[in-house]
Amino acid sequence: MVKPDEARVWEALRDVTDPEMPISLVDMGMVYGVCVEGDRVRVQLGLTATACPAMEFICQDVRERLQQEGFDQVEIEFVWDPPWTKERMTEEGKIALRHWGVSV
Amino acid sequence: MPTLTDEALKQKIAAGYLIERPEEMTERYKKALIQILLVQADTELMSAPAYYMAACKAPSINTRLSAYAIIQDELGHAHIAFRLLEDLGMDKEYLVYGRKPHEFKNPYGFDQPLESWVELIVANAFFDRAGIVLLGDPFKHTSYGPWKRALAKVDKEETFHLRHGEVWMKRLCQAGGKIKEEVQRAVDWMFPMGAEWFGLPDHMKRHSDQLEYRLKGYTNDQLRQQWLSAVVPLCESCGVRVPAHFDPEKQQYVLDYPIPVEYDPEKKRWLFDKPISWDQAFERWKRRGPYNEHYVKMIQREYQKFMGLLNGYGQA
Amino acid sequence: MRRDLKIYDVFARQRRKDPLMHVGTVTAPNADLAAAYARSIYNEEPWIEMRVVARQDEIAAIELEESFA
Amino acid sequence: MNEYKSPKELPPEAQGALFDLLLVLADSKHLLGLRYGEWLSAPALEASIAAVSMAQDEFGHARLLYGLLESFHQELNLPRRTEEPSQYRNLELLDRAFADWTDFVVANTVLDTAMTVQLEAFKESSYLPLRQRVAKMLQEERFHFQHGKGWVLRLVSAPKAKAELEHRLRIVWPTVSAWLGKPSSRSEQALTGFGIQDTDSDGLRTRFVERLGPLFQQANLSVPMIAWDAITGQSVLTTPPDWTGWDESFRRFSRTGPDRETFAQIEALYAHSYPVE
Fold first, then answer.
1. Is B86 close to C66, i.e. CB distance below 8 A?
2. Can you say how many angstroms the Cα of residue D12 is from the centroid of all Cα atoms in its chain?
3. pLDDT tens digits, residue range C12-31?
4. Nearest CB partner across the interface for D50, out of C27, C31, C37
5. Scanning every residue of chain A, which has its alpha carbon at the shortest distance from the alpha carbon of B69?
6. Using one digit for the tens of pLDDT, what is the confidence trace for B245-258?
7. Which CATH number among 3.10.20.520, 3.40.1350.10, 3.30.70.920, 3.90.190.20 corresponds to the domain C6-57?
8. Is D79 helix (H, G, I), strand (E, B) or coil?
């Protein structure tokens, strides 16, 4: 069963888009995991490329959006395994959302 | 195929017809199209060495990476424009590697040295905004199908450059102190450069084939207005001064100085008390800015030498 | 264009269910370079498949005709 | 086989050897990125684009590898490194700008492939953080070789260019072949003994030759250090490196580091007051 707090984080991350294309990080399949402890949240992100030029923007946007949700400490961890592939996009994102009990 | 007259072509275009191939054009249409594409191609191409110069001053591996991503995009856009020109019968190799520096048709802004990370950021915010405004127009309006389709990619990527410029500009200004002063100095010389980019005001402009063939849809003044309405509020939100403001009566942005004015490229300074005529401004553009030759050389340096190596034993 | 160069059309798609669509062209002296060039120029979308084919090897089954509509 | 999740868990000799190797790789990829990026002047616009694209991949990998090194808490001491070029452990062929496009093509095929072969040996690494990152890097490297190969095939179609290419290959070969590591060195024993990499340096050299051999064969290039064995259909290394003056922890023959011009660019990355994360 998903914790309501974590569902809220997933929902909030739907508002953060990859600066290079107008698709949310969730639909991009870039969110690998979310873990909430009180006002702390840890987000695991898979970048589309090791040389992702938008890395800083993405971190900044994720931080700002989750601070709006009341999380004082936002920790971002990059995950490379399994590597992000294009097939993680959209369908994967939707499955993940359904899994977490968020309507698509 | 019956000979197509200019009038008949204009009627078809007015009815929304998209031109797909050179055989469907009149000579005059083709000439106007080549002219506008060449300006686009040269602008994108020459932004690359200018941005590269600043990328070498990037303050971290991360920032250098984003600068390179932007350079790659710009070269990619240039490539697309040159490919379109090639399909119109132009020689792409000659256009990139055979022309003399002063023959390139990029705006005066990309004849200038970009000497710091801050100048790269302001160039992203101002010059890439000019690019988006100028290319967003044909993307929406143009009657040439292949160009319209190619611009979808261009539009997408320029949006990233802009965001890069704007986010960083805010970040640098928030840092305050010396860094903000550096931003102000860059804005001081780059803002009027951007305003001038859009050329002759409408009331001085003669008829335009580019508009009549619907290669583009907006006039120079409309485009300049679009640019000002993005750039001025950005600077205001950063607390950076620009010589322009919103006039509530006219319901548009106006410049606080007579355009065009004289520019001192050595000192990177505009002489706002020395207005000049547009003919004099075009003269200045034609004389080219201080880094025109340097940038063209950065692109062309190896080509001749390499062709010599390839052709050493008669290989074409 | 130089005789040793060829035009290649570039096709790509983003999802398995999508058809390959034309995304642009490159000029290159051989297929390896055409593929490498295509990959670095048309990188605006996360394509899952990209192919290049020499334009000289394509033939028109239906030729684009001028429409007077 | 053990699995190590952090440097602390590694036996000391493996920790030192891995630290050295990761820094060699990170610096080499950083410098290769700088070198690729210098080619706005490639002899074709498309090649300039590919060059800038490959530069980003290398920077991305350097960024990732430097990130891995942070957890070692060993004195990385970036400020001192920026004052002292000799602290840099990059592949020494990258110390200065490429002389011309032929040099670029050689780096793109030979140098880049050597780094890739080293990375591939980590695919099943016992050091988990490295194993987790290597697949992504290898995925991104694939088109580099395709680009290099395309240019090699282009060059050998012209006799003068072909002769020039063969000449350069002979020059770089001993250095790049040595770069894959010295047999029976202590660090090699640690790296293979604890399963950090899946083969020893001679094994890496064999893979390296097997990767490049078919291209050289197809391009009809005569590279005396490699022979084609018609019976096995494999390429084999004929001349082992001469190890005189070799420093295994830096993987260099000389400790000079990058030249002044290059070093100025590296310094720019750290000597600034901008708000960088």
1. no
2. 25
3. 998 788 899 998 899 999 99
4. C37
5. A53
6. 999 999 999 999 99
7. 3.10.20.520
8. helix
